[in-house]
Model the fold of this input.
Amino acid sequence: MLSRSVGFGIVGCGVIAPTHCDAIKDVPGAELVAVLDIDPERARSIGERYGVPYFTNQAEFLAQPGLDVVNILLPSGFHATVGSAAAQAGKHVLVEKPIDVTVESALKLIEACEAAGVKLGVISQHRFAPEVIKVKKAVEAGEFGPLVLGEASIKWYRTQKYYESGNWRGTKALDGGGALMNQGVHYIDLLQWIMGPVESIKAEVQTRTHQIEVEDLAVAVLRFANGALGSITGSTSIFPGLPEKLEIHGQDATALIEADVLKGFYNRANLGEVGNYGTKQTISDKNDGKGPGGAASPTSIGHSLHTAQVADFVAAIQENRDPAITGRDALRPLEIILAIYRSAAENREVKLSEEFSNSR
Ligand SMILES: NC(=O)c1ccc[n+]([C@@H]2O[C@H](COP(=O)([O-])OP(=O)(O)OC[C@H]3O[C@@H](n4cnc5c(N)ncnc54)[C@H](O)[C@@H]3O)[C@@H](O)[C@H]2O)c1
Done:
């Protein structure tokens, strides 16, 4: 256990950097000690805003006293390379989603952290939303009975200008994909976290409304290992951007989540008698509009869930345990997304255990 605060250094001072800096500030026992960006103006801007030394040189940044955790907020295809260098320098690694854009590079990062004996955590902040956790626990407690159907719908909107706002956005090499790899990954992770492992996938993807190398529309049908079916709909072409949804149906219960808010939870106990045609009770809308969604803009994402995940990572270091979302946990949504791409490209069903036998 460290007798001082756990020191965080940010790598990548772009759009998501203030969210992490604010989260670190809010976590007792965590302290921001340095920031790094190859763009000197961006490094200076975040460094001055948060009152910490800023760097453009990785070696100087890594040598900063009190630096325990390297927090990687880079274009996704750089996560593993920079994370592995940080691990080799003896730093814990907390990396933004997706862990990287290929299973091979993700495994390299996982193995580099294991070899160095440092912690690796991957951001998937929606797993910390209280009402999402409530549903996960209810499924684990058997309140849903056998699972029937799980659906994730991420119908967001991004302009062509958004894709042009960074030279890595919408590229195969560094974004790794589009509406699923960058935006959909959050709720795809929740879907598999709650429903369990995915066995096979059939999918179609398109690039519908943007000039980009990757998909802005995808629809997939899933079969889970427990026999339930599922679907994923992901897009950045749906004007004006709708709140993301997760719908979990078991034989005995249904949960409807919208932008992390539980909009409906129905089970046989709270509905009473259900007739031949189901129930006539209508769904009450209890969304207060304060959900932390990013449907129409990534800057509308609040930092409270990142704060919860940073707090967990600090506790994992202090208690010498695994963080809530490890590198291996983060492989699962990555595999699902890559399987969707493979299924669409080859027009066939993809079985995940065969496709990813090297990471299981
Ligand atoms: N969890 C979330 O809700 C969430 C939201 C937005 C972004 N993200 C993730 O965060 C990551 C960054 O996204 P963003 O939108 O902030 O990107 P961005 O383009 O705004 O910022 C990336 C920064 O990295 C810098 N950079 C690039 N290569 C570098 C290198 N080798 N060394 C140092 N700096 C380098 C760039 O100059 C830029 O300032 C992505 O992986 C994205 O998926 C997560």
